[in-house]
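Section 5.1 Outputs to date
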Amino acid sequence: MLEIRDVIIIFASIYERRKMYYRRIIDSYLKEWSERSTHKPVLLRGAGQVGKSTAVRHLAESFDNFVEINFERHPEYIQLFKENLDVRRIVSQMEALSGQNITPGKTLLFFDEIQFCKEAIMSLRFFKEDMAELHVVAAGSLLEFALTELPTFGIGRIHSMFMYPMTFDEFLQANGEDALLKLRNNSDAEHPLPIPLYDKMIGLLRTYMLVGGMPEVVAKWVETHDYLQCQEIQDDIVVGYEDDFPKYSSRVNSQLLRQTLRSVATQCSRKFVYSEVGAYRSEEVKKALDLLILAGICVPVTKTSGNGLPFGGESDNSYRKILILDCGLLMRLLNMSLGNVSELTALILTGDEIDLVNKGPMGEMIAGLEMIRYKSPNIRHELYYWQRTAKNSLAEVDYLSEHNIKVLPIEVKAGVKGGMKSLWIFMREKNLNLGVRCSLENFGKFTYTDNLADDALRQVVICPLFAMSMLQKLLSD
């Protein structure tokens, strides 16, 4: 017999699924997976509150029935996995316990907060082997920590997908700007956005810088257009992350994790210096930082020589810039660390385009995060940058990417050609003829005759910060 608590949870779940759903990039990947004739169980990975459970519930609408097992809310299900990992027995007992049929080919079975049951994670491989027709998805907020403690992980039998906060494109769709998004996607250097539409896009990007892409915050913005109400939710998310720190306590001090996270915010988009965290040994800070990266809260950008692909072969982990997973959360962390970010907020809302990109970490951070999020979620992507520290010859390129199996330098600037000295130096040293400037300019491109390198002709494509999803398309035009 259902208790009142369970009835409330059921109705809450129904309400959650009926609320307005905002389309996510990962939807098409999950849908394609669900339609395959053969499929592995999916492990949906990412930081807490990025929308993993909501995306799975949306996918469930295409199935005849949906069974959701939340191991934190209903720990009684954990016992079903203790005897052995015979998935046929486990499914039969789950049917009896939940009162719902679990039918291969018709049911989507969702294990939420699966990190609370390590045996359930280990069982996923046997769903592939013994119940291959059953669609199984698993997710969890601190999943990465559980994975490091497992003796085995079913290599080749489980498919991981990585999920992040909402991109700027997803933010536009949530705000009903599909027509504007379509016009932007049809623009290029020869056909830039008309000025009124360009101005509107810049305004929306300013809003995104403050609201960010955490789904609950975006939903509140769509509902109220009230920054203060959005900030309350952002603060709740940050506090929720920090409240989870004691769960890492066997690894590192919670206070150190908190101070490291705040320091990441203040050092964002520049080389992370351990000594700025406080009176801790560098080894301790590094351990705390690695845990924040493992949790998906922080995103590293690693220095590399940039001589060729893959970048990881010549990377130097002792030189890293660290980003926060979401620009809106960065603003709240800065407020918690500095006490007042009204000047930065005013700059974002009213500053001119040059100051908006060149002052503060926001432009560079958004460019890097967007680069990751528009790539396939089927693998974990890394970010790299290049820096030369020779005396009297400092130079830095914000990001290195790949295009046509060649190194692609990307600089986040608002200046004109003469203000991109580092980009020209890198292209000359590596003998590259194609680079990118990410800025708040409209679409465009220009060529440069390098008279210091036998008059080599180099081309720079201007990719607006509001069009990072179009980067590969712009390079191919």
